[in-house]
Structures are given as C-alpha cells and as structure tokens.
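Researcher: Next entry in the queue.
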Amino acid sequence: AGGIDRGAELERTLAGRSIAERARARIDLAVVSVLLDAGAGATWRYEEAATGARFTRSEGLGVASLRAFMLGAFSATPGDPLRADARALASIDAGRLAALLQARDGNPLVGLEGRAALLRRLADALARETQVFGAQARPGALYDTLTAHGTHATVAASALLQALLDGLGPIWPNGSALAGVALGDTWRHPHAGGEGVTAGWVPFHKLSQWLAYSLFEPFEWAGVAVTGRDDLTALPEYRNGGLLLDTGVLALRGAGDARAAHAIGSELVVEWRAATVTLIDEVAVAVRALLGRPDLPLACVLEGGTWAAGRELAAELRGGDPPLAIASDGTVF
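Model: Structure for this entry, 333 residues:
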C-alpha cells in the first residue's frame, strides 16, 4: 500500500529467528489481520504514523493490523511482541481496538464491536482447541500441527481449511448449528437441495477460506509446499459478487432490492453468494483460456482479477460501496 514494502520491514524484525518461529509469527499476523478485514465502510481512514500516508478500506485495515502487530498489541508475552496469543486477544475490547484502528466519532469504522468480540472469541478458541493450537494458544501453532513440528514438507489446502474449521468454528456467532455443532458461515436456502441432516444448507466459509488462502505464503516461505490449492472455492463476498451484479451477469429480480439493506442469512443474499461461487469458477476457466495459463490458480484469478475488478467498478459507480447493502456486524462481510 502506497508503494511501501512493509513485508521487508517485518522480515528485518524477524531476522535471526528460526524458520519455525518466523512461520508462527507470520501466521499469527495473517489470522488476526484477516479477522479484522471485514468491510470498513466508506468514510473510515487510517493514518500511518511512520509515513504520514492515509489509507482506506482493506489497505487501511491491513496497514493498521500490521502496525498494531509490530507494536505487540496482540502479544501478552514479555519481550516477544511479534505474536498473537490468547491472553492478549482476550483483553481486547471495542475501546482498545478503536485506538489501534484510529476509529472515533469523526472517523467511524463499521462493525467495531463485532470485530473486538470476534478477537475475544478467537482467544477462547485458541485456549480451548489444544489439539489444533497446542499449549502455545496462538494461531501460529498451526505450523506445528500441520507439519508435525516441521517434519512434513507439504500440507494440503483442504487439511489447512479443515484445521481452521475445527479450531475456529466456534468463533462465528450467527447461531447456525446442527447437532450441537456451530456451522459458521453456512445458511439455509429453500432450493439448496442435498439430503439427510445437511439438506437445505449452503456452506460458504468465506473468512475461513480467506484465512486458508492467506496462509499459503507463510507455509511456503517456511519451505512447506501447499498442495491441492484449487480444492478451495471462490470467496462469496461483495467484491467478487458485486462484479457479477455490476456487469449484468446477475440481476436483481425485485425493484427495491438494490435500495434495501439485507440480512446476511436472507434468501436473496444466500442465493447471490451461491451464484457467485459457481460463476467465478466459470470466469476462472475463461481467464485461463484467455491468458493461455491452464494452471493459473483460482486464488490468482480472485486476487488479481475478480476481486480487483469488482472493487474498481464499485469505486466508479458508487464511490466504493457494494451494489447490495448488507446488514453486517463485521464478521462475514
């Protein structure tokens, strides 16, 4: 953001640490940053003290979360600021998070309370799910869990997602549950199909998959190859989905639907998100053919293609707002 290589700055700070410890720190940062990076709203700004530059939306939240991480805001371990652990995350309330993200009356951030509560639920999960996060109670312990403490040279993308769903499933607050198991970003739709106890449910797991995609690089930087990348799906959120609406691939059937605010679990939103997952697969096929790159990963199509294009169109048409208004607490959108 702003042409500044903050990754190199982080790496200089991590210099001298073992491969495993660098991987844990990068995973800690990625997990906290992704959980904070829901829609910020159109008016929020973050001013970076080191550069004086101002950033909005995802860039602002990314820079803000990196700066907070490097200051030790998520660490309760003396002498080791570059980590996120359960004890520190459990103490973060909306006031503390507002200070870190520069949110205030004249600079409002959408879903501030929801983000702070999400970090506290993350703390609970880190402390409780010891099979995934170990005695360290930090996201970075995923490195040890999935590589058997650095002895495995590969990890499957599906195994990474499974560990995130198992370890972090309880942090999602929407109330959807089946047989006592919290379902997270999974919603009912009358035409979802299926059979048995899962009939009628549509699983998205957008933030969990976003986390999985975001952790590919920390694992690969540690020398661990991520296999089966395209076992994950497109991310059904308002940039990828917005692209389909703004280009007319999808159209709203109700005359007033573009003006109303919709609940995350509403039939319209679930249907829009399901169509997004399906249609972005088709976009990926066309992009690969156009570029002559049959092996281009879906993650690249999303990051450099549909998400970026959806964002640019939203900026041109509405100053950055999505084509659908979502009533969000900052934990899904």
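Model: The chain has a mean pLDDT of 92.
Researcher: Noted, moving on.
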